[in-house]
Write a structure and sequence with these properties.
Order of helices and strands: HHH
Structural class: mainly alpha
Distance between the termini: 16 Å
Shape: flat
Number of strands: 0
Low-confidence stretches: none
Mean pLDDT: 80
Largest sheet: none
Amino acid sequence: MSLVSNLVMGSWISWGKDNNPYQAIYEGCFSWMGNYMGTLVYTFLWGIFYTFVALLLYKRKIFVRL
């Protein structure tokens, strides 16, 4: 996981036995769709979320140098 993902998702928080925030969100919202479709929708929505965050940073001319 990247630093940004850790900050956004709060990976330092305990989400239960052997569970992380990504699994908790997937199981709570997308698991009813099945393995393939649920994973596809989940991944697609995360891609949209990170693209939106990148667009906001770009419009405000905030660039992160690595």
